[in-house]
Design brief:
The chain has 226 residues and is of the alpha/beta class. The protein has two domains: 143 residues, HAD superfamily/HAD-like (Rossmann fold, 3-Layer(aba) Sandwich), CATH 3.40.50; 67 residues. 41% of the residues lie in helices and 11% in strands. The protein contains nine helices and six strands. A six-stranded parallel sheet has the order 3-2-1-4-5-6. The radius of gyration is 17 Å and the shape is globular.
Length: 226
C-alpha cells in the first residue's frame, strides 16, 4: 500500500450537513440581530468559526460578541439540525472498505469537538475511526493546515504516508499546505469541479469512490479519477 493512513473530513464528506451548518449560522446571527442570507453563509462552510464569522460579519470569533454568536450557533445546530442529518451515500461502506485495506482512519475536521461525536454517529463511523483531530486541537482551522498536521501526528505518519478525503476547497488547501494529497467528493454541494483544483482525484460521493477503488489513488498513487 502506498499510504498508511487516511485523513477524513466529516461535514459534507461523511454527513450531509453543510446546508444545516449554514442555516444554523443564519439563525444564530438573526437571533443576534444580524440578517445574513443563506447564500452568503453557504460557500464559507468548511472553515471553522475562527475564519467563517469574521468573513461573514467582520466580527472576530474571539471577541465577546463573537464568542456569544459561536456558542449560540453551536446550540442551534445541535438542537435543531443534528437530529435531522443523514450520512452521505456510502459513507460507512467507504470507511469499512478502508479499514479492510488495513489503513488507519483519522478524522480531520473543522467541527467543534462537542458536535463531532453526534456527527460520527450519523455516519455510522464511531467504531471505525482510530483517532480524531478537530477545531479543539488547533488554533487555526481550515484552510490553514493545522488540523491536517494534528491528524498526521495522531496517525504517526509523515505527509507522504497519508491521503486526505474532503469535500471543499478548504480541505484541498489545508491538505496541500501540509503536503498531503487530497481526494475531493462532490457530495458536499460545491458548484462545479473548478472548486476542487489541486485535488488528485474527484468522485461523486463515498460510494462512487468505493466503486472505483481499484483505479483510485489508493491503488494507483496520484492517478486522476475518471
Amino acid at each position: 500500500m502506498p499510504y498508511r493512513a487516511v485523513l477524513v473530513d466529516v461535514d459534507g464528506t461523511l454527513v450531509d450537513s453543510n446546508d444545516a451548518h449554514a442555516r444554523a449560522w443564519v439563525d444564530a446571527l438573526a437571533e443576534g440581530g444580524r440578517r445574513v442570507a443563506f447564500l452568503r453563509a453557504r460557500p464559507l462552510i468548511g472553515m471553522g468559526s475562527d475564519k467563517l464569522l469574521p468573513a461573514l460579519t467582520g466580527i472576530p470569533a474571539d471577541s465577546p460578541e463573537g464568542e456569544r454568536l459561536v456558542s449560540l450557533r453551536n446550540e442551534i445546530f445541535r438542537r435543531e439540525y443534528l437530529p435531522t442529518l443523514q450520512p452521505t451515500r456510502g459513507a460507512q461502506r467507504l470507511l469499512e472498505w478502508l479499514r479492510d485495506d488495513r489503513l488507519q482512519l483519522i478524522v480531520a475536521t473543522s467541527a467543534k469537538p462537542e458536535e463531532l461525536e453526534g456527527l460520527l454517529e450519523v455516519a455510522g463511523a464511531t467504531r471505525l475511526i482510530d483517532a480524531a483531530s478537530s477545531s479543539g486541537d488547533v488554533d487555526r482551522s481550515k484552510p490553514d493546515p493545522d488540523i491536517v498536521h494534528a491528524a498526521l501526528d495522531k496517525a504517526g505518519c509523515d505527509p507522504h504516508e497519508a491521503i486526505f478525503i474532503g469535500d471543499t476547497p478548504y480541505d484541498i488547501a489545508a491538505g496541500s499546505r501540509a503536503g498531503v494529497p487530497v481526494i475531493a467528493l462532490r457530495c458536499g454541494g460545491w458548484w462545479g469541479d473548478r472548486a476542487f483544483r489541486g485535488a488528485v482525484a474527484i468522485y461523486d460521493d463515498p460510494d462512487d469512490l468505493v466503486d472505483n477503488y481499484l483505479l483510485s489513488p489508493f491503488k494507483r498513487p496520484l492517478a486522476l479519477s475518471r
